[in-house]
Amino acid sequence: MARAKFSMWGLCLIMILVLVHYQLQGAQGADAVPGLGINWGALASHPLSPHIVVNMLKDNGIKKVKLFDADSWVVSALSGTDIEVMVGIPNDQLSKFAGSSKDAEHWVKENVTKHIHGHHHVGGVNIRYVSVGNEPFMEDYKGMYVKTTLPAMQNIQNAIDKAGLGDKVKVTTALNADVYTSPTDKPSDGEFRSDVRDAIQQILSFLHQRDSPFLVNIYPFLSLFKNENFPKELAFFDGQGQTIDDKNAQYTNVFDANLDTLVWSLKKAGYPDMRIVVGEIGWPTDGNKNANPHNAKRFYQGLLKKMESKKGTPLRPGAMDMYLFSLSDEDLKSIEPGNFERHWGIFRYDGRPKFPIDFSGQGQDQWPVAAKGVVYQDRKWCVLNSDVKDLSKVPNALDFACGGADCTSLGLGCSCENLDLAGNASFAFNQYFQTRDQDVEACNFNGLATIVTQDPSRGSCLFPVEIESRSDMKMEDSKTLGQEQSCFREQKQKCELNLETGIIAKALKRLYLRYGKR
Ligand SMILES: *[C@@H]1O[C@H](CO)[C@@H](O)[C@H](O)[C@H]1NC(C)=O
Ligand SMILES: *[C@@H]1O[C@H](CO)[C@@H](O)[C@H](O)[C@H]1NC(C)=O
């Protein structure tokens, strides 16, 4: 009897402990829904420290990441964790690895084998995939990588086999959803684009042989962005509006329709059962009228609940694998596709979340865990000097500042849309100043600008303070900074030219070549 009593108490205690544990987990973010990963890009002037990011991933229960290269600073930070990693090979290296199995072996040795086998006795990195190329068949590249992608994939896979890792590490390539189209918008009319059909046919055969997945990037936001008449509700997962009917299937969202267009294309190419992994999917929060935290929250909530339900699509019911795009904002991304490009982060540049999101897919209205241990620069901002009464010189200075920093939050439908000319200038000056690590030289603009210690943020328009960061992309070339400023002072026509050849333009060009338009 006494024993029974004891075990009753014991049982209660255990239940209490379990409850307390569950509550703590709830506050910290439970495990993410199975199959969920996140893209971790670093095209930022001040990227977060990899160790901070890895802790943030753990705090949020995220178990898979996809990288766009194999930066050893980043990859090493993942060692000793159980986080599953996809590393990448940028497009500008495809021809090198297509042409040389030695180079491929070298890459695998340095960027895969070494990491898998562990660093400084802290355990290895769980590398499972290599994405060879990033959207290499995108139409805008005009076929530039069509011939090199598969040979590079083969050489990298052979090198992996040679290293004895062939069963563990799989090779694939991240393809943009524009590699297939449907002339009628009905999934069943889907087919691979004619100019890349042969190349994809060969890649499919490779993926099939190696049991590797087809990796595809799908963006309902872009459907909306590219077509003014696109029915907005179809971009989300809780839409009550229009549907697309096709054969025996009814589509209530464009994601399902897009993925099933791929399924049809695969079927026609002879691979009806090929596994599909979504390499990128997400919603930006600024830089466009449809890009805001409200829409992003709605999109992700629907997407994550859908993943949790394992409903899949009409042609592919069941669990899905997806990598969200993206972890945090990247202020050096090319904005050629649109001003929203620098605002894909679920987290801001400093690792603070932008909106509630429940990675477990339970649909709770909860905030994810912010990055911990981020060190900010001084609480200083650069703004238009309030003594300046004649604003005639302001537009010129504003353009100059925006030419060398990220001003994509200005403009109609964006977070800083309500600023007047003076506000615009202050925002631009501050962006320029922060990007250059608050260098006093960078807050001059012929005396138009001044440093303040009171936060000029207003409403949704945030004036950031940059974080401390170690990165080779930093604007720390003071000579260039001096040149930029003196050029501006002297009001030369050549200023713009200088900007084009300046350090930012150079960095952007290099990155654009390397990573494409992602
Ligand atoms: C390993 O990857 C990094 C980052 O992507 C790259 O810079 C480096 O050249 C690679 N190493 C080799 C041997 O190719
Ligand atoms: C502020 O900048 C935005 C973006 O360039 C522009 O659309 C807007 O007209 C500017 N406002 C003023 C008052 O100049």
From TrEMBL:
Residues 1-29 form the signal peptide. SUPFAM superfamilies: (Trans)glycosidases. Keywords: Cell membrane, Disulfide bond, Glycoprotein, Glycosidase, GPI-anchor, Hydrolase, Lipoprotein, Membrane, Plant defense, Signal. GO terms for molecular function: glucan endo-1,3-beta-D-glucosidase activity. One of its GO terms (biological process) is defense response. Its EC number is 3.2.1.39. It catalyses: Hydrolysis of (1->3)-beta-D-glucosidic linkages in (1->3)-beta-D-glucans. GO terms for cellular component: plasma membrane; side of membrane. It is a lipid-anchor; GPI-anchor. Its main location: membrane. It is found in: Cell membrane. It comes from the Eukaryota. Residues 380-463 form the X8 domain. Belongs to the glycosyl hydrolase 17 family. PANTHER family: GLUCAN ENDO-1,3-BETA-GLUCOSIDASE BG1-RELATED-RELATED. This is glucan endo-1,3-beta-D-glucosidase. It comes from Flemingia macrophylla.
